[in-house]
Specification:
It is a single chain. This protein is an alpha+beta fold. Among the domains are: 91 residues, Type Iii Antifreeze Protein Isoform Hplc 12, CATH 3.90.1210.10; 82 residues, no CATH class. It contains four helices and eight strands. The strands form two sheets. Strands 3, 4, 5, 6, 7 and 8 form a six-stranded antiparallel sheet that branches. Strands 1-2 form a two-stranded antiparallel sheet. The protein is elongated and about 70 Å long. Pfam families: SAF. It comes from Fannyhessea vaginae DSM 15829. InterPro entries: SAF. This is Putative Flp pilus assembly protein CpaB.
Amino acid sequence: MYASFSYAQSVRSDAQKARDDAIASYGGDVVRLVVTAHPLQIGDTIKAEDIVVRDWVSDLAPKDAYLNSDDVIGKEVKVAVGENVPLSTMHFTESDDELVIPNGRVALSLPMNERLGIGLHITPRTQVLGYDTTNKTTHLITKDMIALCVKEAQPAQNIPAQLVLAVYPTDVTRVLSAAATQSLRLVIPAVDVQDLKDDSQQVESEHTKEISSKSAIRRDDSPKEKDHAQKSSESGLKKNDTASSAHVTDESKHT
């Protein structure tokens, strides 16, 4: 165990010496930068174990490189980055390609929340379906929206994270109206999904089915009610028979 620890220390010392030699051979001022401890992928949130602070030749430091680890922790990676790479603002900013609006569409942004149904890590260029959902019905608004990017929340300005979508102009009003009433639900279909309901088709909700079922039960007389109704009917018939008999007797007397 001691031998393994000594070997690890030796490797780290050799790596540090190599960096020091490179800095010395290049010359110039040295700065301490925040660099990646291992590769990071798009959507990763920076944690303390993901980064280290190391010496770097100032002339080789990227523009807008981070010097303080506290400025990086908690940020979401927007561009994939390898190991031992100085982190800069470019790694946390959407690329221009993600913000290109496809021909024939317009871009709109929706505040991210739990009711929307989609998380913050949606991949750019993902197809998105939009449904308008109420207690009684659910119908498809549009089946051809495209996710462009997710804008980070700005707590200082009380601005939540925003999902930017590319939408056809004819769908904008319906999407924004559903979002305003918080009835908008977004769904991501699989590539092979073909059977999508169009706008005119409505789906009965479970709530509506439950109400219909309860109404049917109320309309169906219970056994007790049926028995009571039958007895009342029989009683009425007996009274009618008695009255008829009395009427016949009176007529006989008069005769």
